[in-house]
Each structure stands twice: as structure tokens, then as C-alpha cells.
Write a structure and sequence with these properties.
The chain is mostly helical. The protein has five helices and no strands. The protein has a domain of 51 residues. α3 packs parallel to α4.
Length: 138
């Protein structure tokens, strides 16, 4: 009759049969498999976590962008829908470039009294009198 497993491990001269080795290996593999039994479940959870973390980062970025557009819109009076850019500085620069077109501010400078006619005086200038004297003007 084969000796018990304990006696075989204590005796350095102990000899094992193939059935003993198969049983020992099977027991060891079983313990190892139990140790990693939830590996697939943990792998799925880690994948879901990575996906949700990525989605959260996208939402935070989107909210930050919306906050910046709202801020620039209030500061410059430009509608949010018209603002473009990925950073606050880009959105502000774009808003500044749109501001003249949206707020009705003229793009070109206004020259005061540009369409007014000069005051007429009844007296003719000396140049016109000279031209009449030499016959070049009527």
C-alpha cells in the first residue's frame, strides 16, 4: 500500500508512482486555477473602467469648452454658436475677430462730416480768376 503524502514528503528517499504525481499535479493546478478564477471578471471590469474613464475625460473637456464659450460670449457679446476653438485663447481670438461683424461696429473708421459740401463763398479764388483772364475757363 502506498505511503501517505506526508510520509513521502518527509522521506528524501521516497519514491512516487505515476498516479501520485498525477494527483499532486492535479491538486496544484486546481489551486492555481482557483487563484485566478475571477481573472476574466476582473479583466472585464478593468475594460469597463477604462472606457468610463475615457468617456468622463471627454465629458469634462466638452464641459470646459462650453464654459469657455459662455464666458467669451458674455464678455464680447458674440453668440456662443459662432465661437470656435479648442483653448480659451483660441476662442477669445475668434470672438474678437467676429465682434465687429456681430455687434454692428463699423469695420472702417468713420470720418466726421465726410459727405458735407464745403461752404461756398461768393468770392472766387485767385486761381479761377487767372484761368478766366487767360481764357481757359468760362
Amino acid at each position: 500500500m502506498p505511503e501517505s503524502n506526508e510520509q513521502q514528503q518527509n522521506d528524501p528517499e521516497a519514491k512516487f508512482t505515476q498516479a501520485d504525481i498525477d494527483r499532486i499535479v492535479t491538486e496544484r493546478l486546481s489551486r492555481q486555477q482557483k487563484q485566478f478564477a475571477d481573472y476574466d471578471e476582473l479583466k472585464d471590469k478593468a475594460s469597463k473602467y477604462d472606457s468610463m474613464a475615457s468617456e468622463l475625460a471627454e465629458l469634462k473637456a466638452s464641459n470646459q469648452l462650453a464654459d469657455w464659450k459662455s464666458q467669451v460670449s458674455k464678455e464680447l457679446g458674440v453668440p456662443i454658436d459662432l465661437l470656435r476653438g479648442a483653448t480659451l485663447e483660441e476662442i477669445q481670438a475668434h470672438g474678437e475677430s467676429l465682434k465687429p461683424f456681430v455687434t454692428g461696429t463699423p469695420v472702417a473708421p468713420v470720418v466726421p462730416k465726410a459727405g458735407d459740401q464745403p461752404e461756398s463763398n461768393d468770392k472766387e479764388s485767385p486761381e479761377i480768376e487767372l484761368l478766366r483772364d487767360i481764357g481757359l475757363s468760362e
